Amino acid sequence: MLMNGVAKQYEGKGNFGWAFRAAVGRSGGIITVWDSDVSSCSSWWHMEGAVVVNGFWGEERTECSLVNIYAPCPLSERVELWDRICYVVNQNESACICICGDFNSIRRMEERVGTRAESGRRDVAVLDNFIREAGPIDLPIHGRSYT
């Protein structure tokens, strides 16, 4: 029902498509929305912690995959998510893959306040390992602190 309400917000504002993973327990859901005049979806699916949309982008119709993440809080569950996403990246034959969303992780200890040093170091090491294996580029964000 909520997804229908979200989709209705876009009615009359263009030609949009969307894919979602419903909320589970107290965890929020994930929605990915695209402008169908610019891109098209050939398939989509979800897994715990992510929605994957495959399709074509722009006038050149470049094949792309978008992985929209809402990572769980427990480190062990994030490790499982990173492993699944690495598998998706390694199996994907698309010309481009965009991995985005709420990683719920840090790259540097100073990014998170109030975390025990040991758990913070493990979080950094796990995310760094994912980045080495999956190969995403960590875009620098300026102006505010993001986690």
How are the SSEs ordered, and which strands pair?
Layout: H1 2-9, E1 16-21, E2 30-35, E3 39-47, E4 50-57, E5 62-70, H2 75-91, E6 96-102, H3 117-134
Parallel strand pairs: 5-6
Antiparallel strand pairs: 1-2, 3-4, 4-5
Helix pairs in contact: 2-3
Question: How much of the residues is beta strand, in percent?
Answer: 25-35%
Number of strands: 6
Overall residue-averaged pLDDT value: 83
H/I helix tally: 3
| Helix-strand topology string | HEEEEEHEH
Q: Helix fraction?
A: 25-40%
Give the biggest beta sheet: 4 strands, mixed
Q: What is the overall silhouette?
A: globular
Secondary-structure-based class equals alpha+beta
Q: Which value, in Å, is the CA radius of gyration?
A: 17 Å
Low-confidence stretches: none
N- to C-terminal distance: 30 Å
Order of strands across the widest beta sheet?
3-4-5-6
